[in-house]
Structure formats: structure tokens, C-alpha cells
Model the fold of this input.
Amino acid sequence: MTILSHLVLVSGQAVPNITPALDDSFKPKQIVMLVSSDMDLRADWLESVYKKRGIKCSRHYIQDAWDIEHIRDRVLDLITKYDEGSLALNATGGTKPMSIAAYEVFRDLHRPVFYVHPEQDRVIWLYPSEQAGQYLAGRIKLPEFFQAYGATITDQGDKLGVPAIYRELTEKIINDIAYYSKALGSINYLAQLATGRLSVELNAQQMSDMFLADLMALFSANNLVRLEKNKLIFANEAARFYVNGGWFEQHVYGLCLNIKKQTGIQDIGRSVQVDRQHQNKPVRNEMDVTFLKDNRLYIIECKTKRYSANDQGSGADTLYKLDTLKDLLGGLQAKAMLISFTELGDYDKQRAGDLNISLCCYKQLSNLSQHLLSWIK
Done:
């Protein structure tokens, strides 16, 4: 059996239609997409990935993605144009009627059908069922993954490891979290005020705050800031960003790098900025830390802001943003986590549970690596 072409069923779930094309031992010469009119844009996204891999593409349209008889007739029209065994059905995508109808036609005509396991990235042969399955060697990277969901990476932070001097700084803050959390809101506020000018004046209350003084001294010892009389001066814009919560993002990114080999993370990025089109208008989204494992997208939001325990739902915006991003950019299999330097209120914790968003907050941060490992596994 020489399979030269794959028939894929276009739907909102892109990854199972892409990963077979990334494995050189399984890669087809041509992809035929079964497309309903409402999925034309998603077919465009898929095609952009296929063509980068040198795979030819064509489309076969259906009028109704829920009419089994109609779909069966359209698939029958298509399959007769191919030699026996040369076209295989990837039954993973599409609506349930699309998958059932296409499978029935291929099965009745004794043509090959496979399914991609959504979590294991493994091909399972549905027909002939005695044919051995295989794990797919191709591992999609972040740029191609986002492209399959209609987004383009336009900017991201460096992919280097975290310098030792900064690891020591962040570990000290995390280890003494109860002490430094008292001043973190203040220094975040000052760093925000210094945007564009790199300096800000402290008022009398701020000058007398011993917790803030200790935190400023910690950053000053690493040449990130200096205090001249009552003026806090940042070394440069990178230093201002780092003090304004960038240190926390870098800390989380460093821990993810540390467990990359151990967990099989295939690609990872920090400060990842993606652009996508929504109603013909560009929309920009940013993710603090994001990575792929087994072709599943993981999104992490890192926050040093203080959430009020008395404010019902002060973290709602952050949680809803995460929920939206994982659906838009990762599909049904995507996972999201909020890592917060401060504690969340009970209402926000319940909301996170309802949205299936994992949390690691405040004193849990000392064991963040283990939380990440449990989350991934």
C-alpha cells in the first residue's frame, strides 16, 4: 500500500491534521481538505503550514457539515478519482457526521483510514485495523502551531537561560515572599510611573517605607536601579521592565527551561507576542510563557499584582483572558495556568476551577517546579 495523499476533515482542531505531515516517514505528497464554507478560513491557515513543508493542497467542498448522506456522496465523488490505497483518510477532525460519513465510505471501499491520538501524537489505524500504529516523529514548533490557528509570532523574548546573578535575586525574593510582598506593589507602581523616562520621585511615605527600601536595595545591588536623594532611577528600559514584574516572568521561564528535557517539552518561548485577524482587524495577544508538549499548547500568565481578598473577582480579567487565549490559540487540548506572587481570593479560585485554569500562588511558589511537573504530566 503506497499512500500518496491524505484526506483531512477541516474543523476548529488543527493539530491532528498537521502532525502527520511533519513526520518524514508518514508525510504525504498531497493533502486534500474536505471543507464546509464556514471553515474556509481555517483551511487557509492549514494550507499555509502544509505549503511550507512542500505539500500540495486541494479542497473538496461540502454544503452541510452535519448532513451524513450529503457528506457520504461528496466523499464518494472524491475517492473514485484516486487509485486504490493511494488516498488515506485522517478521520480525526471535522464534525462527527463528517468523520462518520467519510469513514463509512473508505471502509466500504477498503481504503485506509487512520486516527491521530490527541494526547499521544500517535497514529491509530482504523482500517485495516491489523496494521500497526506508530508514534509520529514530527514535533510542531510554536510558529507553525500558531500559524495553524491563524496567528503569527511577531515578537518574543530571548531563548537564553537565566543568568546566575538573576537566579539568586529571584530565589531570594521567592524564599522571603512574605517579607518582600509587602513592598512589591509599591515598586511595581513606581516602575510603571517611570515608563518612558526611567526615573520617578518618591514621596515621604515611600521614602520611610523600610520594606520598600530593602526591596530597592536588592535591585540596586544588581545594578538595576539607584536611588539619588528621593529619586529612583532605572539603569535602562530593560531594567525598568525587569523590576516591574519581568523578574517574575524570567523566574518562571527559567524553571520551565530546567524541566524541558525531563518532560519532553518540544518548544518554549517567553514574552511571546502574536498577531491574528478578527473581523478583518488585527488583534495582538501576549503570553508571558508558553510552550508545547506532545503538540499541546500550555500558556502561563505571571502576575506580581496584589489581588484583593475583599474584592469579589479582582482576578476575573486575568482568568478570562487566559481562558480566551487557550481556546483561540490552542483549541480543546490547550491548558492554562496563572502563577501569582500574591494570593487570590476564594471567588477567583472558584472561577479558575470553573474555567479549568490551574493556579500556583504565593507560598506555593517555593515548590513551583513540582507544580509545573504535575500540571504537565
About this structure: The chain has three domains: 5-138, 155-159+247-376, 164-243. Residues 336 and 357 are 5 Å apart (CA to CA).
